[in-house]
Amino acid sequence: MRSSGAKGSTKGHLNISDAGPRLGSTKQRNAARAALSLAVLSALLLIAASPAQAQASETVLQNFDGKDGSGPNSRLTSDGAGNFYGTTPGGGSAGDGTVYEVSPNDGGWNETPIYSFGPQPAGGYTPDFSPVIFDHSGNLYGTAYGGGANFYGVVFELSPPGSNWTETVLYNFCPEGYPCNVTGAYPIGGLIMDSKGNFYGTTSAGGANGIGTVFELSPSGGNWTEQVIYSIGKSDRAADGLVMDASGNIFGSTNSTVFELTPSGNGWDATLIHNFKGSPKDGIGGEFCTLVLDQAGNLYGTTTSGGKDNAGTVYKLTPVVSGKKKGTYTEKILYSFKTNGKDGVGPSAGIVFDGAGNIYGTTIGGGKYSAGTVYKLTPTGTGGYKEKILWSFNITDGNQPESSLILDSLGNLYGTTYAGGANGVGTAFEVTP
User: Fold this and answer.
1) Are 173 and 154 a contacting pair, CB within 8 Å?
2) Are strands 199-205 and 250-253 parallel, antiparallel or unpaired?
3) CA distance 351 to 365
4) How far is the C-alpha of 82 from the C-alpha of 131, rounded, in Å?
5) How far is residue 258's CA from residue 256's CA, in Å, rounded to a whole number?
6) Measured between alpha carbons, how far is residue 11 from residues 81, 148, 171 in Å?
7) CATH code at 115?
8) For residues 346 and 370, what is the distance between their CA atoms, to the nearest angstrom?
9) In a domain? residue 59
10) How far is CA 87 from the centre of its chain?
């Protein structure tokens, strides 16, 4: 099917250097944020007595103020030259969200909104949990949850002619003649791209069961053609955080499953490779996470709840390569977060590795001030992991880090917080372990 409102902008096959994560329904996310806010209010009394934290430091790169965006909840994307790009679902000139750049400047950092969505809905609005990705020409791509010609969201491109960025809508969801239960609606979580120039992403509604889809968007005759390649199950919640392996297989997670989509002669074959069981032995609530693949084909992810204390987990799925169970996956819980007033709670984003095999991530709650943490998991050599809290956010320096981290060549970690900071509407930060 073709988007009735798409502006043809096909520039040949694109090679994307970075791919993006995350999602869940707006009501579910707002409920979780409200619950966390109650815990955070009590922590405000402790901030004045905050001691310096050893062995790690945090720098706020940007305090968002609403005009330049608010509520950043997607991970940053590096351009390879030291600059970072991201999205906010709110704020900007029309209050409908932004795409922004954070750049180093004489020992400090400058943040610039390079595009503001709205006030007209045609270009989309609210890029929720939507990181941007680059092609080799410097164009940016992402998804906006709402707006567009049909008000069900868009896939967009931003092109940099000189110092100005120009938006082109590549696809409008639910085009005329194609109901949303066929196409999917309200895209969330950003995009990945294969070597042929096809985009893949998720929607939080629509599809055969009305709960969401995984879609493929292919360049076709100057327009883009959408195909739903997977509909989320009836009793589940929408997926997010797609990742693709070298063979073109796609992996994603939902509230209660991890799935694999394999290209075949008839389209795509879907396999559920893990069903979460919840506390105390397993996690649950993995739909907010972007999965990570290592070179051996193992999958790593997080769950927002479940585990021994029902505070969330980090897990590993290993493919079985021989025997009767060949082709299946076995799960191992690498870490269960603790409700002890010190540990993080609710890891809603994916993880990142360093060269030594250490794992880094964020939790949206917990820590010394109940405002979230940056954590490190170090392999013990016996198959287990030891956790260390690198940073506990104290609200003034950030609150509720909902996005995955990125790691530079020096070992510094970069991310965003949904709230907190000098103006209360989020930050971009650096943590140096």
Assistant:
1) yes
2) unpaired
3) 16
4) 17
5) 7
6) 24, 21, 15
7) 2.120.10.30
8) 11
9) yes
10) 11
Query: Is residue 4 assigned to a domain?
Result: no
Pull the structure tokens for residue 262: 């394999």
Q: Domain containing 364: what range?
A: 26-45+54-432
More confident residue, 1 or 53: 1
Asked, for residue 7, whether it belongs to a domain, the answer is no
The alpha carbon dihedral of 376, 380, 381, 384 has a sign of negative
Q: How confident is the model at residue 1 (pLDDT cuts 50, 70, 90)?
A: low
Mean pLDDT on 366-375: 98
What separation in angstroms does the CA of 114 have from each of 35, 78, 164, 354? 33, 15, 7, 31
Answer yes or no: are the C-beta atoms of 233 and 257 closer than 8 Å. yes
CA 152/CA 174 separation, integer angstroms = 7
Spatial contact of 417 and 401, defined as CB atoms under 8 Å apart: yes
DSSP-derived secondary structure for 335-350: EE---SSSSEE---S-
Kindly report whether the global pTM for this prediction surpasses the value 0.85: yes
% residues pLDDT > 70 (the chain): 87
Q: What is the pLDDT of residues 287-315, one digit of tens each?
A: 888 999 999 999 999 999 999 999 999 99
Tokens of 334: 């690498």
Kindly report the CA angle at 246 between 245 and 249, in degrees rounded to 5?
45
As for how many domains the chain has, the answer is 1
Cβ(76)–Cβ(84) under 8 Å? yes
- Structure confidence at residue 201 (pLDDT): 97
Residue type, 373: T
Omega before residue 131 within 30° of 0, cis: no
Tokens of 253: 């997670």
Q: Which of 256, 255, 201 is nearest to 230 (CA)?
A: 201
